[in-house]
Amino acid sequence: MIMYLLTIILLLLIAPLLLSFIKAVKMWLLYKKPVSLFQGYRNFAKLMHKETLISQEASQITRIAPFLVLSPLLVTLFFLPPVVAGAFYVSFVDAFTITGLITLSTFFLMLLGLDSASAFGGMGSSREAFIAALVEPAMVLTVFSVSMMSGDLGVGQAGVNLAAHFPEAHMASFLFAAISFFILLLAENGRIPVDNPETHLELTMVHEAMILDITGVYLAIIETAASVKFVIFASLFASLFLPFGLQFAAPVAAALFLVKLFAIAATVAFLEVNTAKLRLFKVPNLLGIAIVFAFLSLITFYVLGA
Amino acid sequence: MGVDFLIGLFLATLIVALFTSRLYRLILWYSMNSLTLGILALLIGEELHDKAMLITGIVTILIKAIGIPYMLKSFSHRFHFVRQIQSEIKVQHAIILIPAILVFTFYLAEPITHMIHGNANYVAISISSLFLSLLLMMEHRNVAPKIIGFLSMENALFLLGITATEGMPMLVELGIFFDLLMAIVVMNLLFHKEEVTP
Fold first, then answer.
1. Which residue of A has its CA nearest to B123?
2. What ipTM does this complex have?
3. How much is the pLDDT for B166?
4. Are the C-beta atoms of A2 and A218 separated by less than 8 Å?
5. Is the CB of residue A212 less than 8 Å away from at least one CB of chain B?
6. The domain containing residue A52 runs over which residues?
7. How many domains does chain A have?
């Protein structure tokens, strides 16, 4: 139990670090002076001290939505597969619950964007709805397919089973699921082929457009939610698709897990430097690939058993 | 395990190629497809202790993964090709169509897989990639993507050859390679024609 709580606290703590790490790697690759790895924490501390202003047109939703954006993600953190062997984990939570919780958070984010009654917020929300509607089926299919391969529908149990015996016979469907999940990781976290997290151009932003009217503590909460979401996706990827190293002693396993998370973050940064942002109406192409791969992984597993 | 992984990669590169709308990117995916095929041939040849298959694997990597993509790229430079290749089938239809084709071919290959012992799934995957390359030929109106479709169909047949028959005779393989090179030379003429009549 103590390990379980410790890993959750660890994941929460490194959440801002990972996003700063991506930014630093990107800046380093572009020959800029990299941003400090602790910039995420500094931003958080700064935003906590700032005055919180709320738009005159905003209703009660703006006051409660930031908490409702963060809380489903915090709940999801408790349902992730274990990081070290022998730790407590929740075994019964399946693909639908995890996807549902993440989508619940996205739903309140969209409400928040709509609530400030600015043109930007509505635009961002409609774009986010467009992307979320395409991400959701693929995510359910992918996680479901991987948990079928591991022989248990629960995601936590699936992580443990995969680490215990890797599905070597189902390597092809495992690969398809991994490709699909990586595309979803990019799309859900608003990374570059889908959305640019750094821009403030009206034509390109999705996530930034929704939170443009939010200040102070609420902005700090929303930013934390974004980083926690990345940690959730990265650790799901690490424990479902890179399932090794669970058998080591607890500190080694945790360190290996952190290395995996940073490797995923570095991969995302490399991809961001090397690709251009897709036009919004090209995003269905990318997510279409994700859906096809998710479905393909399921049918390859069922029909061929490969 | 390695073979399963590579076969998955083979199908994956083909599916990604179906969704691309840029010619150079399509050529790159074709090259990746051939590269996985070559490595697959090397692995299976190593398993079966078949020297001929090792040679075909190396020749595949040299010709199909490096030679032909390079040639296609230089042709498209020379003849000023349209590099934006729009698919005739809309993406939303393709999302439904591709899994439908895959399910159909997986069940289509079911009777065959009973006859082959060992790696029977590979037959299903190679037949489905055959159908997907047909789709790649169908969904584009330009000549260049059609040629890539033809070439990846050849890749699919090659995969069927190395997985189902445990190695075709060396002579047949080399004959196919020379045919392929001849086909590329003929396609040169086709390219020329497209340039004259846009």
1. A304
2. 0.84
3. 66
4. no
5. no
6. 2-304
7. 1
